[in-house]
């Protein structure tokens, strides 16, 4: 399998953070590549992208000010296959990345990703308490997972991502 490389650079508006790459993403080397994953459709329908992108174009989103990383780099069939040790190391590495690249917003794609990173248990959708960010100067936004297994209606998911879009416009 190919490594699914981070797409990170200084000055990004948003860094999207997932649990870890799927097996399909590992096969093709691109973020959110599973055809059942709704990530690219969500970005388009929320207004975050001007058109529907394909996973193979994930690096192109740097031009829009968007980057990608994961709390754990190893590909698995599901987040339940990630070990405690991988999360411990992943938290440290992710904190280092956010401190180094300093995006305006760290968008956690799934409440579980955020709770693993922040070690907080009470989490709502959207922007988190800015008085207590995990990384000073980086706003934290929690969005629903884009997995096709999520039971939340797509319109509700898009509405939450639209909050992120609307905030960037302000």
UniProtKB/TrEMBL annotation:
One of its GO terms (biological process) is base-excision repair, AP site formation. Residues 10-153 form the Uracil-DNA glycosylase-like domain. Pfam families: UDG. Keywords: DNA damage, DNA repair, Hydrolase. It comes from the Bacteria. GO terms for molecular function: pyrimidine-specific mismatch base pair DNA N-glycosylase activity; uracil DNA N-glycosylase activity. CDD domains: UDG-F2_TDG_MUG. InterPro entries: MUG/TDG, Uracil-DNA_glycosylase-like, Uracil-DNA_glycosylase-like_sf. This is DNA glycosylase. It comes from Paenibacillus wynnii.
């Amino acid at each position: 399998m190919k490594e699914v490389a981070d797409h990170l650079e200084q000055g990004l508006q948003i860094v999207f953070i997932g649990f870890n790459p799927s097996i399909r993403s590992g096969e093709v080397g691109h973020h959110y590549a599973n055809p059942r994953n709704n990530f690219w459709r969500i970005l388009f329908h929320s207004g975050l992208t001007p058109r529907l992108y394909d996973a193979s174009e994930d690096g192109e989103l740097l031009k829009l000010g968007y980057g990608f990383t994961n709390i754990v780099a190893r590909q698995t069939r599901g987040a339940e296959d990630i070990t405690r040790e991988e999360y411990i190391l992943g938290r440290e590495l992710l904190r280092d990345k956010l401190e180094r690249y300093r995006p305006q917003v760290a968008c956690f794609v799934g409440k579980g990703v955020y709770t693993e990173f922040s070690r907080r248990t009470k989490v709502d959708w959207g922007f988190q308490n800015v008085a207590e960010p995990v990384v000073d100067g980086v706003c934290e936004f929690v969005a629903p997972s884009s997995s096709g297994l999520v039971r939340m209606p797509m319109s509700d998911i898009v509405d939450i991502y639209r909050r992120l879009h609307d905030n960037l416009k302000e």
